């Protein structure tokens, strides 16, 4: 998945390991890797298949800690 217009809310070191990714607000959390680019874009590699990924949808990144889920940031799916 290619993303644009990223909004990163945490230290970029949080992206060195796998994170949880949600493609839709009602979607499931899927483990994957976020490859941040210098031009405010990213490439996402999901570990599981996800249906219906479309340009214009939000894609949000999470990780888990002892308190629960933490939002790391997100971006918009592009062509």
Descriptive tags:
79 residues, mainly beta
Can you tell me about this structure?
A six-stranded antiparallel β-barrel has the order 1-4-3-2-5-6. The model has no long low-confidence stretch (mean pLDDT 94). It has 79 residues and is mostly beta strands. Helices cover 0% and strands 53% of the residues. It starts with a strand and ends with a strand.
Read across the widest sheet, the strand sequence of neighbours is 1-4-3-2-5-6
Query: What portion of residues is helical?
Result: under 10%
β-strand number: 6
Structural class: mainly beta
Please state the overall shape, judged from the principal axes of the Cα atoms. globular
Report the biggest beta sheet as strand number plus sense, adding barrel if it closes. 6 strands, antiparallel, barrel
Give the helices and strands as they follow along the chain.
EEEEEE
Radius of gyration over alpha carbons?
12 Å
Total DSSP helices: 0
Report how far apart the termini are: 9 Å
Name the average pLDDT.
Answer: 94
Low-confidence stretches: none
- What fraction strand? over 45%
Describe the structure concisely for a colleague.
The chain is mainly β and 79 residues long.
Secondary-structure map with pairings?
Blueprint (H helix, E strand, L loop, with lengths): L1 E7 L10 E4 L7 E7 L5 E5 L11 E8 L2 E11 L1
Antiparallel strand pairs: 1-4, 1-6, 2-3, 2-5, 3-4, 5-6
């Amino acid at each position: 998945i290619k993303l644009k217009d990223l909004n990163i809310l945490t230290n970029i070191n949080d992206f060195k390991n796998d994170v949880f990714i949600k493609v839709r607000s009602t979607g499931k959390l899927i483990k994957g890797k976020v490859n941040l680019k210098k031009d405010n874009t990213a490439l996402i590699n999901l570990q599981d298949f996800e249906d219906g990924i479309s340009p214009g949808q939000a894609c949000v990144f999470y990780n888990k800690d002892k308190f629960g889920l933490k939002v790391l940031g997100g971006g918009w799916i592009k062509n």
